[in-house]
User: What shape does this take?
Amino acid sequence: MKKYKLKNHFKGLKKGTHFYLIAESEFIGIKEYILRTKDLAVRISINESELNRHFTLMHSYASKED
Assistant: This one.
């Protein structure tokens, strides 16, 4: 699972807030991403440009037991 960190204040959320990428979809060339905060309390839906502008990829989680 990919983990992102907020670069600056965005839609009432504080800089440094950690998010998990829950889902990504594409329809007619427009990508949409669903992110949830680390505590799963907040869910946001953003497009690709907002993701690139406001979020930094921290690291990806992969199952090491496989």
Q: What stands out?
A: The chain is about 10% helix and 50% strand. Strands lie at 2-6, 18-27, 30-37, 43-47, 55-60.
